[in-house]
Amino acid sequence: MKILIVEDNANLAFGLSRSLQAEGFEVELEGDGVSGYNRALEIDPDLIVLDLMLPGMDGYTVLEKLRNSGNRVPVLILTARGEETDKIAGFRLGADDYVTKPFSLTELIARVQAILRRARGPQVPPAPATEQFGSITIDPSSRLVLRKGSPVALTPKEFDLLLTLARRNGAVASRLQLLKEVWGHQAEVMTRTVDIHVAELRRKLEEDPSDPKHILTVWKAGYRLER
Q1: Do 94 and 62 touch, CB atoms closer than 8 A?
Q2: How does pLDDT run across 145-158, given as a tens digit for each residue?
Q3: pTM
Q4: Partners of 136 in the β-ladder
């Protein structure tokens, strides 16, 4: 499988490349945003490891241009920025995961492998029946969500999370269960990922996101969906 690393720190990029090659991946490197974006279109990689602070075109812009063009290549954001607002911005643009520098190569490789496993097949099996709660309809076959009959734009991970909660029929799902089922993580890694995506679902689907009626927090347990 082919991985494109877009990172302007040559030493870091080289180290990542060697580590991923040792795991059997084919790796290409680009050192700026413009070259990274163009190369992504040329080689159609299976995954992009994308730094945010890039010369020429920053990582946010690279990701936004890819998604606006309809390109759904999995993207792992790699950056020194650790603020939650930066993570939210990346997820809203369609990033699949987020690793903050400094990081361990073992963790990064595990994240890469998890993303690629998800990309090879959907985490939620397709089903002909729609799911409904309140004014929301979820159509798994078309991956379409309607609110009062109007389409709602969800990122792929937001959709997977929503459908996973809906199919639990009111049962509570812990953050770790959701990380495993939706993101493919096998251990407790960046549990704020779940919280950020739940907040986005509430913002898009609840009448009052500050007082949700359907996507509920269960104290010290996780989340559940109330129909």
Answers
A1: no
A2: 999 999 999 999 99
A3: 0.62
A4: 133, 147
